[in-house]
Amino acid sequence: MSKRIVFPIWLCMLLGACAFNAWPVAAQVAGDQAPETQGANGGGVVGPTAMPAVEASLPADRNVENADETEPPPTDAQTLSAADPAVVELPPCPVGDGGLGEQVAVHICQQVRIEPPPTSLKVDNLALRSLEYLIPFYARRDYRAAWLDTGGKPLPVADKLLRTLGQAEREGLRSADYPRARLRKLYEALQQDIATPTAGQLADFDLLFTDTFLTYGSHLLSGRLPPRKIDPDWTIKPRSRDLAEVLERALANDTLVESLQALAPQGKGYTQLREMLQRYRTIEQAGGWPVVGSAKGARGSQAERLRTRLQASGDLPEGQEQPGKNATHDKSLASALRRFQRRHGLRETGTVNAATLAALNVPTSQRIRQVELNMERWRWLPDDFGPRYILVNIPSFKMGVFENGKQVMESKVVVGRQERQTPTFTANMAYLVLSPKWYVPRSIAVKDKLPQLKRNPYALKGQKIRIYNSAGQEIDPGSINWSAVSASSFRYQLRQDAGPRNALGGIKFMFPNPYSIYLHDTPSRELFSRNQRTYSSGCIRISNPVELANYLLKHDPKWNKDTIKTAAASGKQRVVRLPEEVPVYLLYWTAWVDDEGLLNFRDDIYQRDKPMVRALYQKGEIQGGDA
């Protein structure tokens, strides 16, 4: 009798196939917040995952008249535990006394059904990369070959897979990351009867094709790399499918190409980038665009090169050129420059300043790579953001409110500076606070405020910041020898009174999360007029808080713009719960297509593109391909 083989939960977790993995993560110091230790759930490339349910203990609902509400306490980071132990039983191997098909099945079974279960497996000197789905795929079909007929000949679906892999670049992936050339050689050898293969060789052929489908499908579904490898703080739940089932259905229904296409993100943001990727590759194949010199007041050849450059990227329509010596920096050229500047987040001057010149001379190949990186980021996101959500794109310094697929509101934002970066995550906005007090996070207290107290014990008085001891009692700052207080011995809580000088302005919008990040008003309104807005300690300052509050409370008859403004300026804190929680996404896109169909690029303000480039494009990162 055959032994029973089980697929233990530890192997599932090792391979990324089971419910989730979890470990503590030290978050970046992300200003307006100071969690000492952060916990974040794991998000794998494949397999279902889970996110921590972050909730706040909200106060009972009160009328507007009952203004002095207590804000819910900060939410600590939560850490997930592993799922309860579970096993997946694998069927026994076939007897092997039948025809060729059964002999191949025996060889497949002997490779995947071993004890202890394999954590790695090489076939024809190629490491299989999708064991978490490959093993259950064959177990469900009693280890029968999927890509061969009963006589050992490749089925037509094998050729379809090879052709589909040749289109990987269309999805911003690389066909060289898959063993297409090796598989094509094996396929043709079997088709042409060059030699009589053994059952073991046929089994290897089948395993390689299955693993390649599953690997390519995994990359389409949720990216070539786990997002946490690039961003340790990543907690957004990835898309997941049972790829073994996807392959089984694709084979049964002869829908392999369609099944793979369906695994890629279907959202407009991704599909528009995919279209732009093809367009920019066409530009590159035609020689790219010319390098532009300083074109301030340009005439003749300089203006002509600028026109050629702007036409190549679609900013200057065809038919508006003025070739040769008569070419000038005219109105059409200035209009094209303003469009180009708008797409790149630059000041719309209509002239070529230093920043514009630098953006004009970024080579086509670099822009193509930028599009590919952001397509990868889309693969890390869920299928759907929901019918209503708030999205902050950190590099664009913009916040959008979306309802039923359309943007209904936009705001300029200020995000975290380089040393206190705004993290990427999602959480549900649950309530807002009008006329808020600011409880100064410890990180800001010891880094920013303690040096001020050392110079002058009463330095914070003018900022309306009170100091409390560990017992919660307000103290006279002059009674403390601040020169003897260090960051490690700082045992005080700082709280800024509500009012016009409060760092949070008149409103803050709370979506409880482990990072203590939120949206808020600001008294520093002048910062919104600047083009680059990395000035906060991690939280997001918004330019139109009253409008956002009015939108969120539009179905509550107690609130309108006037009552919101009055409460925000009252100096008396009150908490207002939202009638319905709204998802908030803080994301990092350096390339996207806007509502006008224009491809936008932004500077990599936190240098987060660079580690992606290293991980995705440096040779040797992705194993098992032709490269």
Structure overview:
The protein has 627 residues and is an alpha+beta fold. Helix content is 33%, strand content 15%. The protein is built from 18 helices and 20 strands. It has helices at 9-15, 100-112, 131-140, 156-165, 180-191, 199-222, 227-230, 243-253, 256-263, 268-285, 301-312, 331-343, 354-360, 364-379, 442-455, 545-552, 561-568, 609-617, and strands at residues 5-8, 22-25, 38-41, 87-90, 122-123, 126-127, 388-393, 398-403, 406-416, 425-434, 438-440, 465-468, 493-496, 507-510, 519-520, 534-536, 540-542, 574-587, 591-593, 599-601. The strands form 6 sheets. An 8-stranded mixed barrel has the order 7-8-9-17-15-14-10-18. It has a 3-stranded antiparallel beta sheet with strand order 11-13-12. The radius of gyration is 29 Å and the shape is globular. The model is unreliable at 1-69 and 73-87 (pLDDT under 50).
